[in-house]
Task: structure prediction
Amino acid sequence: MANYQLDVAFTQAQLDTFLATGTNVIVAKPSGSGQPNVAWQVFTPFPANTLNWTEEYGIYASTSEIKAGATLSQLSNVPVGAAMNKLYTLEASANITGPASGGQPNAFSLRNTYPNKTYMTVGLYQDANVNGTDIAGNAISAASVLLQSTAVMEPFTTVYIWLQSQVKSNSVVTTVTSPMTELKFGGGVNDISVAYDSSSGTFLPATDGLDEFVVSHLPCL
Result:
């Protein structure tokens, strides 16, 4: 399994401005719709920051609603290292069983048979290390799945990074208030270094060889 590293640099003047405005760094991954809806990692930056993670995932089920700011508490989960291409089942007991045959290619599948709600929030979660601190269990996606329906969750190696205040890790984010920078890991790209550019509000490559196919920018949602 691949290991990835993101290095992010700021100037002291930028950090002073972030402190005065309560601004943090947000890192997220795409959802099935192609844009993030969960803040995976949120941290107060240093001049030099490092985020490390491994491409393996857990699956979670939650009674949390998918609304702005909601924390994605886990009712039950499959530990990190869940099997792709297999089917898991959220049982009436709230336990998740599997893996079994019946999954979808290149994805994680979870069938919802939990009868206490008409739908559940399910998604993938992924562990990481942020500036030397291990962060376990933060969600990277969230979607609603009806009773007796199956959620099919495709993982992505792409990450988005932007700046925002009043956003927490492992929570739903529906409004992005600054430009997002898209960083395309995978395909031989395991390490990316960027630096924040105050004039554009985006992150620019800090390593020779990164091009527009690795780093691109998106407007606020």
